TrEMBL record, chain A:
The keyword Oxidoreductase applies. The keyword Oxidoreductase applies. Its EC number is 1.13.11.3. Belongs to the intradiol ring-cleavage dioxygenase family. This is Protocatechuate 3,4-dioxygenase subunit alpha. It comes from Marinobacter halodurans.
Automatic annotation (TrEMBL), chain B:
The lineage of its organism: Bacteria, Pseudomonadati, Pseudomonadota, Gammaproteobacteria, Pseudomonadales. It comes from Marinobacter halodurans. The keyword Oxidoreductase applies. Belongs to the intradiol ring-cleavage dioxygenase family. This is Protocatechuate 3,4-dioxygenase subunit beta. One of its GO terms (molecular function) is protocatechuate 3,4-dioxygenase activity. Residues 76-104 form the Intradiol ring-cleavage dioxygenases domain. Signal peptide: none annotated. SUPFAM superfamilies: Aromatic compound dioxygenase.
């Protein structure tokens, strides 16, 4: 029997004690946060840092970001990805969640690994979902890596994006004293509005 | 061919719904770029019982300090289904809500209404083989907000669901039947008229438990997934 989708509603300003309780120090458990890795996780350690900017360019302090990614071998930890040639990593699930209300600059931060390309001919990327007060629907985007210039240049999804907007999807690599950091600001509106996807 | 059913934009609000003030600067303003779903969109995180505490389905008990929370005890239950009508089993359902006085535990909520030391207002559970979930909680109160003069949010419970892939992700709000604030609420009214009522739970005497709690039913329909595992 065909059913109709339940409409989306905003996550509102008060998600923190339900969805990101430990990050915000509320007395409720939290099963996914900003750190996706342990010592045993395979792959290059990276940190992703960014802000969610509104139409005035102000950093939003009550957005929530979720990321989903393949492991270092380019495999997703999910039954629909049954490619045995690419090993699962028992120390990596590939999902993270972070609210923008706890850092002084309203940033989100993920400690993760750089994913492998999920197949030949595509660039490595991380799927990013944006929720927030004022967002009636969540928005999907992707994070690509600035040090993957050749792969990015021939990536079939990036090719679908108008050339003058592609750089909104490229996180900038910086070598810092505390490791490799990629900067990825998300602009909801205006000049340089991040490309959001429908699929 | 593996696929997700499309996001049904006729059922969902627009990103920018001007009567909901904060959507004006935060809603996506340019057209979405359509892409063909591949493995990234046909997979997603799977969380089950391992992330659910033994009392997390019962919000009248998981935040107790020294007694029962105040307010009207209710049961909220329903099925999580795909658009094809198939149940979505073993998927995590998370809720959060105001207390009976219309006050959230969240530090940003400065509404002059009492906090309840015995009510946290957050819970989670996992759907069973039939896609059913069930919470016991306190009926949330209405509360004022700053959207426009004399603005009040109707009674509501926030829901967050995953479903099988990142494409099926849904965050929404459940409302209560007969609430006079619904027609005045720009967040509820942002939903197209023909799909709005899907957000309103229905009272059920069958779910209601004698001498214990009224019952409300709220079924949730996610995008459908028709995926064949990729083997090589």
């Amino acid at each position: 029997m065909a059913m109709k989708q339940t409409p989306s509603q905003t996550v509102g300003p008060y998600f923190a004690y339900g969805l990101t309780a430990q990050q915000y120090h509320y007395p409720h458990s939290q099963y996914a946060g900003g750190c996706l890795v342990s010592e045993r996780t395979k792959g290059e350690r990276i940190r992703i840092v960014g802000r969610v900017l509104d139409g005035n360019g102000d950093a939003v302090d009550d957005a929530m970001i979720e990321i989903w990614q393949a492991n270092a071998a380019g495999r997703f930890d999910h039954p629909n990805d049954a490619r045995e040639a690419r090993p699962l990593d028992p120390a990596f699930k590939g999902f993270g969640r972070f609210g923008t209300g706890t850092m002084p600059d309203n940033s989100f931060r993920f400690e993760t690994i750089k994913p492998g390309a999920i197949r030949d001919g595509v660039a490595p990327f991380i799927s990013v979902t944006v929720f927030g007060r004022g967002m009636m629907n969540h928005a999907y985007t992707r994070l690509y890596f600035s040090d993957e210039g050749d792969a990015n240049a021939s990536d079939p999804v990036l090719e679908r994006v108008p050339a003058d907007r592609r750089d909104t999807l490229i996180a900038t690599r910086n070598e810092t004293a505390t490791g490799v950091e990629y900067r990825f600001d998300i602009r909801m509106q205006g000049d340089g509005e991040t490309v959001f996807f429908d699929f | 061919m593996s696929q997700n059913t499309p996001r049904d934009w006729a059922s969902h609000p627009r990103y920018i719904s001007p009567d909901y003030k904060s959507s004006r600067l935060r809603g996506v303003s340019r057209n979405l770029v359509e892409i063909d779903p591949e493995l990234a969109e046909l997979t997603g995180p799977a969380f089950g019982e391992e992330v659910v505490g033994p009392l997390d389905y019962d919000l009248t008990r998981n935040g107790r300090v020294n007694g029962e929370p105040l307010g009207e005890r209710i049961i909220v239950t329903g099925r999580v289904l795909g658009e094809n009508g198939d149940p979505v089993p073993n998927t995590l359902v998370e809720v959060w809500q105001a207390n009976a006085a219309g006050r959230y535990v969240h530090i940003r909520d400065q509404h002059d209404a009492p906090l309840d030391p015995n009510f946290l207002g957050a819970g989670r559970c996992v759907t069973d083989d039939n896609g059913e979930y069930r919470f016991i909680t306190i009926k949330p109160g209405a509360y004022p907000w700053g959207n426009h003069p004399n603005a009040w949010r109707p009674n509501h419970i926030h829901f967050s669901l995953y479903g099988p892939t990142i494409a099926t992700r849904l965050v929404t709000q459940m409302y209560f039947p007969g609430d006079p604030l619904l027609e005045l609420d720009p967040i509820y009214q942002s939903v197209p008229a023909e799909s709005r009522e899907r957000l309103v739970s229905r009272f059920s005497i069958d779910v209601t438990e004698e001498s214990y709690a009224l019952g409300y039913v709220f079924d949730i329909v996610l995008r459908g997934v028709n995926a064949t595992p990729v083997e090589a």
